[in-house]
Structures are given as structure tokens and as C-alpha cells.
Write a structure and sequence with these properties.
The chain has about 190 residues and is mainly beta. Helix content is about 5%, strand content about 50%. The strands form 2 sheets. A 5-stranded antiparallel beta sheet has the order 1-3-6-7-8, with no helix packed on it. The chain has a 5-stranded mixed beta sheet with strand order 2-10-9-4-5, with no helix packed on it.
């Protein structure tokens, strides 16, 4: 698996997927996202305002000692930057939500990430998301995207960055790991 720094495992709770997750963790892969019930077939993609969606964000520690992590949840349109895995720089976008986890070596954890959208509008070939609620906490996002004629949709991205505590600086630093969910905003029926 050399050269890869991020991997999405669909169905990671199943027999084959769980063994793949174990292998990836053994190779140092430390953050992942799975659909509700840890199954791939319910992974949210076409999303609508007023509907609640669920994914699970997992973190695994294979650093050789107990480690303190923070996962920053961010939301972007297609023009805003993702983390740069070549330079190791995080996205400049402000985190909307965060969760902290302290894991012993070899430990892993996954937490539910429930999200929904409100104040969504469609006009003139654009979609605008006014608010995003994550685990019951509302955030004003005010992000717009233009219709993507090639892929037929209004695409946004919810992504999670993994940061690790650095005792030398007494702060967290980006661990050059992130995972994401592409979301196509659709109108209510």
C-alpha cells in the first residue's frame, strides 16, 4: 500500500473490511469514515435540507505509545482548499466541530457524526447552504456552489482532519491525515 496516505474503507465492520482496517492501522493509517451501521450501502451522498445523516469517524493509534488526538470537522465548496498532503499543511478553513480522543497504543475509537442542513436555496444555477448542524450543534456556513454539468450536481465536501498532540510545543499539530465525504445537495421533493 506504499505511497497512500488516506484510504476510505467501505463496509469496514464486515469480515473482509474489518481485516482490511486492521491491516491499514498496522501500516499507520489512523483516520477513517464509514456509513451508518458501519455499512457502505447507506453512505450519504445525495443530501437534502431537513434530513439527518450519519457517518462514523474512526481513529486508530499505532504511534508506539498513548496518544492524544483531535479531529477537526470542516465543510467546503469546490473552490475552497483541502489539506495539502504533499506539504503536510492543513486546510486553512476554520473547523466547525471537533472531538478529542486519547488512545493507548493499538487502540481505536469511532464516534458518530450526525449532520443535517437547513436554510438551503437553489437559484440561478447555484445552491447555497445557510446552516449545517453537526451532532446537534448548529453552524452558519453560508457556502454556495455552482451546478456541475459534467457530474450533474451541487457538490460540497465534509472532511475531517486528524491532529495529534505535540508535548514539545504543548499544542496540536496536523498529522497529515484526513478523510472526506462528497455530498450532492438536492432539492426537497
Amino acid at each position: 500500500m506504499g505511497g497512500f496516505s488516506k484510504v476510505l474503507v467501505s463496509g469496514g465492520a464486515g469480515f473482509i473490511g474489518s481485516h482490511l482496517v486492521d491491516r491499514l492501522l498496522a501500516e499507520g493509517f489512523e483516520v477513517w469514515v464509514l456509513g451508518p451501521g458501519h455499512m457502505a450501502e447507506d453512505y450519504p451522498f445525495n443530501v437534502t435540507a431537513g434530513v439527518s445523516y450519519l457517518v462514523y469517524v474512526g481513529v486508530g493509534n499505532h504511534m508506539g505509545s498513548s496518544t492524544y488526538y483531535v479531529v477537526y470537522v470542516k465543510f467546503r465548496n469546490e473552490t475552497e482548499p483541502l489539506p495539502n498532503v504533499t506539504t503536510g499543511a492543513p486546510s486553512v478553513l476554520a473547523p466547525l466541530y471537533e472531538y478529542h480522543v486519547f488512545l493507548e497504543d493499538g487502540g481505536n475509537s469511532d464516534v458518530p457524526l450526525a449532520f443535517s442542513f437547513s436554510n438551503v436555496s437553489f437559484s440561478g444555477g447555484q445552491s447555497t447552504v445557510g446552516s449545517l448542524t453537526i451532532n446537534g450543534v448548529p453552524f452558519i456556513v453560508g457556502k454556495s456552489v455552482s451546478w456541475d454539468a459534467v457530474n450533474s450536481g451541487y457538490f460540497y465536501q465534509l472532511f475531517m482532519e486528524l491532529w495529534i498532540y505535540d508535548p514539545a510545543s504543548d499544542g496540536f499539530s496536523f498529522h497529515n491525515r484526513f478523510v472526506s465525504c462528497w455530498l450532492n445537495m438536492t432539492a426537497s421533493v
